[in-house]
Specification:
This protein is of the alpha+beta class and 406 residues long. It is 15% helix and 21% strand. Strands 2, 3, 10, 11, 12, 13, 14, 15, 16 and 17 form a 10-stranded mixed sheet that branches. A hairpin with a 2-residue loop joins strand 4 and strand 5. The longest helix has 12 residues. The protein starts with 16 loop residues before the first helix and ends with a helix.
Amino acid sequence: MPSIARPAWRRSALAATAVAAVLTVTATACGPEEDKADEKPTPSATQTDKPGKSLKDDLGLPDDLPDELPTSLDDLDKWRDGDWKNWDKDKWLDEAKEFFNPIIKDLWNPDRMKDADGNDREVDDGDIEDGGGGRDGSGEDQGVTDPTPREVKAAAVKTPYDQDDMPVGKVFMDTPKGAMVCSGTVVKDPRNPGKSNLVATAGHCVHGGKGKGWFRNVVFVPDYNPKGMPNAQLENAPKQDVAPKGIWWAKHARTTDFWINNGADKGGKGAPQDFAVIKVQPENKGSATLEQTVGSAVQATFSTPRVKSLSSLKAVGYPAAPPFDGAKMYQCTDRPGRLTLDTTQPTMYRIGCTMTAGSSGGGWLDASGKRLLSVTSIGPATRDWLAGARLGKEAKGVFDVVSKQG
């Protein structure tokens, strides 16, 4: 069974009438339910209990509710008024062990989205290996690093974005470093054909990696800025021009244990399994799912096809670091090569591409444009190539768990 991060608490007690009456707030999702598999939660997802009488005790609620719930009427007022968005860096390691992402309406307005920074992870030659061995991946590709690919200049995607078959958007999140942005892709959900609420992105877009925790206020905005307006115009643009298909809050999120236990802000650590899936819900409630709203979704594929079997891979995203500003969607298409950062882990796909930070998490599509084989993870300071994880059994395990969540 693949190793994945699983929070250790449930939110079933929130159905209690007393809580429903008290918590009259916009938050409707308290994070992932505990998976019913036999595996134990990983240390990175273990709940930390705090002693003392609280509002939870007074209401007869179980102890395994998240600590982030308000524990007094004063705290409840602050929480209802949006105090959740305030980030205490000193408490992050204690309070971000569980993914908890209540909806805060209008938090992500066009101005705040415009100013979010790209979540980048640069590597250098010292991070790259060229050896043999390894347990997973395709045998002829494993442990191999091909020559650096030629530069491929990122091409602007034709506007309007909401009239193509690429269900791509931006993933926004609050981190201890401030508001940041990645990219993401709507993927099909086999348990809900035609009605998917799943988005594929990078692990580093939802979790800080080794010794850190889950990010907050994680949302997906499909077809962000579909007309491709210049960044200067977005500050005062109406929301319907920036996010015409709504803002979708992550209800559940998973990434691989490998990313959680090894990932880092810089360099290639954790990159061979830098993959995540989020299940979203709309900020403004409605009956339509994300796939129905966007009009399409791609098939996430976990068969790790050999490099020589692929005529091309197309990376799509919203690069936000110079010379880009995050306003427009771009793409790079190239025949993939191989990149090894860790000979004990699957070799990554690599293509030439000039996209920068902000494109992280964006989908890599095969020549048909219908199958997602990877997501953007890393690139060099020279900004002439990108690499993405080869999606195998670990990624499929993450995907399956999120798909099962309600």
